[in-house]
Known about the structure:
- It is a single chain.
- The chain has helices at residues 28-39, 53-62, 77-90, 106-114, 127-137, and strands at 7-8, 12-13, 15-20, 43-46, 67-72, 97-102, 118-121.
- α2 packs across α3 (77-90).
- It has a single domain, classed as Cobalamin-binding domain (Rossmann fold, 3-Layer(aba) Sandwich), CATH 3.40.50.280.
- It is of the alpha/beta class.
- The radius of gyration is 14 Å and the shape is globular.
Amino acid sequence: MSTSTVTHNKKKPIRVLVSKLGLDGHDRGALVICRALRDSGMEVIYSGLFCTPDQVAKIAIDEDVDVVAMSLLNGAHLTLFPRVATVLKERGVKDILLIGGGVIPGKDKKLLEEKGVEGNFGPGTPLDVIIQYINNNIKK
């Protein structure tokens, strides 16, 4: 994994909100992602467990994040991930990259992308791949 500082616009580190939505209480993978992003030079905010889409959107706006990295292992990704995208759009936010992770079947990835949730990384995805994806797709 690269240890170089990750910035955009040469001004400030990329700010990422890592979030666990719904009733998914498994956060080991999310915590690993938090550490990898932080070690790559990004600023990381962790929402904690059991967040609603409205809470995630509020935190993202309040913290002025560049990326929301959502994680689910319980199969509710087709409901909860797009809801975050909808709430952000309703609040006029269009410049936050939304990425998903967790147990997401391949057939669901295209559906999520159509609703504004990109990446959609599964178990075993190399951390460098996720970091590079964020660097290449940041919107702000």
